[in-house]
Amino acid sequence: MPVLRASIATALLLATVGPAFAVDPFEVQIYEGDINDPGHAGLELHSNFTAAGRRMAAFKGEAVPHHMLRMTLEPSFAVTRWWELGAYLQTAFALGEPSARWAGFKLRSKFIMPRGHTGDFTFGINIEVGRGVAALGSEDWDTEIRPIAAWTRGPWLVAFNPIIGWALSGTLHAAPEFEPGIKARFDTGRHWGVGVEYYAGLGVVSNVPAAKAQEHFLYLVADLLDGPVDLNLGLGRGLTEASDDWTVKTIVGYGF
After folding, report:
1. Torsion angle (degrees, nearest 10) of CA 240, 201, 173, 141
2. Poorest-pLDDT segment among 50-59, 141-150, 198-207
3. How far is CA 156 from the centre of its chain?
4. N or C: which end of the chain has fewer CB within 10 A?
5. At a CB cut-off of 8 Å and minimum separation 6, what does 172 contact?
């Protein structure tokens, strides 16, 4: 039967393709709607270390996640009070390797609606285009659209990023995947905020896998508020079989 043959062929194709990371391990971050002042630059360093994760390669030549340190340098520049450009320059270190791996790059364009029009809410969108490397999942070109919705009142902040991403090249191009993330934080009044961040990789929208094959992570986080630098610290736990067990992350940022 043609339909059966097509289904089998599709399954075999998916089985032979190296798995893409549904939750981006280089950018474990919830966008809250912040933006640089117009004409000013910023610089962030993202560091994510998989303290306990998958040890077996999913395909030949893969750099496995266990004990992998990923570092991403993110320069940015605000063109206007609502438009910011940025880039991600990614590297990866594996314990025992003498040097770092180049891990790809991304270019981004972020648009934030001025808060004067939205009250307690912040709305925006971030659009990215980039390319990775084969040893870390995929060397295809891909893109991501990240809507940004945040609410602040008193000491509370809640931010939601319902991300849609898809490959622009390769065998699975134009197959969108859904990667929602949400954050809740409480300002302690002592220059620190504490809260939780949740990330999920639900797979291809048209064919969502079983829950155990999805990626789900929960992070306990602390943010430095009103400090000389921006600082986000987090300890994450994978909640499913497909998720790495433990990840430690930091984001350090400075505005010029």
Report:
1. -110
2. 50-59
3. 23
4. N
5. 14, 17, 20, 140, 204
Whether 181 and 198 have beta carbons less than 8 Å apart is answered as yes
CB atoms within 10 A of CB 116: 6
Q: Report how far apart the first and last C-alpha atoms of the chain are (Å, whole number).
A: 63
The full length of the chain comes to 256
pLDDT tier for residue 152 given thresholds of 50, 70 and 90: very high
50 has pLDDT over 80:
yes
Q: Please give the sequence-ordered ranges of beta strands (E in DSSP) within the chain, or none if there are none.
A: 41-52, 68-78, 83-94, 101-112, 121-131, 141-153, 156-167, 177-187, 192-201, 215-224, 230-238, 246-255
Q: Which residues contact 35 (CB under 8 A, 6 or more apart)?
A: 78, 81, 82, 84, 110, 112, 124
3-state secondary structure string across 25-75: CCCCCCCCCCCCCCCCEEEEEEEEEEEECCCCCCCCCCCCCCCEEEEEEEE
pLDDT computed for residue 3 by the predictor: 36
Long-range contact pairs involving 48-53 (C-beta distance under 8 Å, separation at least 24): 48/247, 48/248, 48/249, 49/247, 49/248, 49/249, 50/25, 50/244, 50/246, 50/247, 51/245, 51/246, 51/247, 51/248, 52/244, 52/245, 52/246, 53/238, 53/244, 53/245, 53/246, 53/247
Find the mean pLDDT for residues 1-30. Answer: 54
- What backbone torsions phi and psi does residue 134 show, to the nearest 5 degrees? -60, -40
